Amino acid sequence: MERNYYTDINELARSFADYAAAVLSNALKSQKTASLVVPGGSTPRFYLPALAAKSLPWNHIIITLSDERWVDTESEDSNEHLVRNHLLAHLPEHLQDQTQFIGLKTDHEAAAEAIPEIHQRLEKIPQPFTLTVLGLGEDGHIASLFPGLKLHEETDETTGQLCLAVHPPLAPSPRISLSLEALVNSEHIVLVVTEKNKRQLLDQLIKHANPEIPLLWLLRRSRAPIVVFETD
Fold this sequence. Notes:
- By secondary structure, the protein is an alpha/beta fold.
- 32% of the residues lie in helices and 20% in strands.
- The chain is built from 8 helices and 10 strands.
- Strands 1-10-9-6-2-3-5 form a 7-stranded parallel β-sheet, sandwiched between helices.
- The longest helix is centred in the N-terminal third of the chain and has 20 residues, at 9-28.
- The two termini are 19 Å apart.
């Protein structure tokens, strides 16, 4: 794991954008399509516009989400709404309609009912993902994989699974999350950690591994080195 500390969120955003653009550009030298997985939350509002400003062949980059809340896509709580407003809307106008975005929300009433359709959508993205960007929750969750799910205990039922429906105990709505398997198989993984308490959690996990924390599942099973961008 490579940790990079920045004095403020704007400096982090610029450095992240440079790194992500380099990864995607390098991938497109040897393949026709690259894929980018981005998270929700508040922090991406800072770094996604910085990435959108990069001169990239966005029409050759497929974008999807690490997870999604089961709310209307026009809701402020929707991760799709976040990406459309803070990444896609900031792309050059001539590329906005050419850039492929694959959302995780359907018209199904329940998130669990939508899994087959969402799985089909995700199968259209070349695997493994080129670059997966994740945030870190105060409880150590990544995407919408929360403590208590036991996803580190791989079974035949979870092998090959790209997504799952999740009901976080303290969250107001169900969620769809990419599976641990899909995340750990990514070619490049970025972890964006903001706020001092989350950085301290990362420090603690490095010193004292807690097998109940989803971030540790990622650290232990990731195919690729994880690059951390962090600030207080």
